[in-house]
Amino acid sequence: MPPETNFLRDPLGAVVVGPELFAAALVAQGVPVRRVDWRPPPAAEALASLWCDTVDAANRVALDRLLAAHQILVDVRPAIDVVPGMTRETVLHAGPPIAWERMSGPLRGGIVGALIYEGLATTWEDAERLVTRGAVRFDPCHHHATVGPMAGATTASMPVLVVENRTAGNRAYSTLNEGLGKVLRYGAYAPDVIDRLRWFRDVVGPALGEAIRRAGGIDLRALIGQAVQMGDECHNRNRAASALLIKALAPEIAGLDLPGAERRRILAFAASNEHLFLNVGMAACKAALDPAHGVTDSTLVTAMARNGTEFGIRVSGLGDRWFTGPAETPQGLYFPGFGPGDANPDIGDSAITETAGLGGFAIGGAPAVVQFVGGTPAAALEYTRLMYEITLGESTAYRLPALDFRGTPTGIDVRLVVQTGILPQIDTGMAHREPGIGQVGAGLVKPPRVCFDRAFEALTQIRAGAASTRRH
Q1: Helices 105-117, 124-132: crossing angle, 10 deg rounding
Q2: What is the DSSP pairing of strand 90-93 with strand 137-140?
Q3: What is d(CA 319, CA 368) in angstroms, rounded to the nearest whole number?
Q4: What is the C-alpha separation between 448 and 433, in angstroms, rounded?
């Protein structure tokens, strides 16, 4: 619809909520048309079964656990030493479970690069042979208290950030951030990518771990709260958070027993990487959400993740099941030389930030991020306001100055998503659909509604079963 069309002034116009064929016929006749993505709400009986004291009480427990989280960055260690279930043959990946045959280009590229980095393969063909003969075990990062941006490839010797939730006593993990462009998480695996990962393993990881331990840990809840008030949403804008992290660690890094050239190189890399904090923030969000998972009858979403083929969610009261649908391609801004035909469908575990009330849910407080992902500051504010319609509460730690210091919308409720038809707003990077090329841009995306519809159906079936048991 042309932006100048005014439906209140124009003599003839139509709002179409039905088939596209009907809208196309009106457009062909010159009738202004506004398309609305709407579908009938679930049957009243199904909704009523989930709007009850039992579910409300379960959601209060889950939300309280999420909001009570106090996350501390305590260490950096090799994944094999700290990640639950990690083995030398394991490759963790982003998103819900997926077999090699269905993996997208950037996910395959990230896995091949990880196998080359580990010395298990030297070429793409070597890596593929390992996979086809069953010598490699794939598993989602989320199954191991871990999150990985984009491809999320995580292997045994990679240094991982260790974040502890002091309230609940659990830990979560994520790899170190490589920066933007041609990096492993975007499916690149050229020699310089592998060399950087080995420098992380041999120098940066041990140095950061020692610096963090000397500092007595970094209070991430306080740091994120400050960064949000400085204009970050801690998904695609991490400028303030990264600077605050470097500020806290630089004195300790400067005092390490390393050659001066290495200390300078570490600090220069950290200072040049405005996404340095992204992986830290992701692990902090994972550490906050895991204690909220597994609450019987709760409709709180505890994970949103994408593998480049499918988008999946997990729900507190539905155990470890994934509810999936086809991943959408983000809409946004492209780096020079790239366009929509180059972008892979949505990929990565980084939507854990939105799940915890950051990212696209806090974008209204980060107006500058629209220069990276597209849109306008006014639209960003509207996205955040809309997210209050599908969440159970507001953060007590992360507050938005642009909204009179209101807490960010937190705790996605499957019931509210299905009832309102409003889908979570995510801002994200975009990977090239072919392996080996890397990042091509950044933009905005939403989950497929079918994920929430399927979870809603599973929840109503559980409630129906409970009601039947009571009757008998």
Answers
A1: 100
A2: parallel
A3: 38
A4: 19
Place of tokens 């915890």: 356
Q: Give burial (CB, 10 Å; 0-12/13-18/19+) of 232.
A: buried
Predicted TM-score of the model (pTM): 0.89
Alpha-carbon distances of 208 from 83, 144, 200, 202, 381, rounded to whole Å = 18, 22, 10, 11, 36
Second CATH level (architecture) for the domain 45-64+293-471: Alpha-Beta Complex (3.90)
Domain with CATH 3.90.1710.10 in the chain: 69-285
pLDDT digits (tens, 9 = 90+) for 386-434: 999 999 999 999 999 999 999 999 999 999 999 999 999 999 999 999 9
> What single letter denotes the amino acid at residue 392?
L
Which CATH fold would you assign to the domain 69-285? Enterococcus faecalis V583 fold (3.90.1710)
At 36-89, the pLDDT tens digits run 555 555 656 677 789 899 999 999 999 999 999 999 999 999 999 999 999 999
Residue 204 · residue 266 · CB < 8 Å: yes
Taking CA 352 as the corner, what is the angle to CA 346 and CA 354, rounded to the nearest 5 degrees?
A: 85
Q: Which among 469, 422, 430, 423 has a CA at the least distance from the CA of 447? A: 423
Write the DSSP string, 157-192. Answer: TSEEEEEEETTT--EEEEEPP--SSS-GGGT---HH
Q: What's 215's DSSP letter? A: H
> What's the rounded Cα separation, in Å, for the pair 315 and 416?
13
| Strand pairing category for 90-93 and 71-78 | unpaired
Q: Quote the crossing angle between the two packed helices 239-254 and 205-215, to the nearest 10°.
A: 90
Tell me the Ramachandran region of residue 449: left when phi exceeds 0, alpha when psi lies from -120 to 50, beta otherwise: alpha
d(CA 152, CA 175): 8
**C-alpha atoms less than 13 angstroms from C-alpha of 208 in its C-beta half-sphere:** 31
| Close Cβ partners of 110 (under 8 Å, ≥ 6 residues apart) | 93, 150, 151, 152, 153, 184, 185, 186, 187, 189, 435
Distances from the Cα of 60 to the Cα of 67, 287, 340, angstroms? 10, 18, 42
Q: Which part of the chain is CATH 3.90.1700.10?
A: 45-64+293-471
Identify the residue whose tokens are 């519809």: 453
- Helix extents (H) in 84-236: 105-117, 124-132, 191-199, 205-215, 220-229
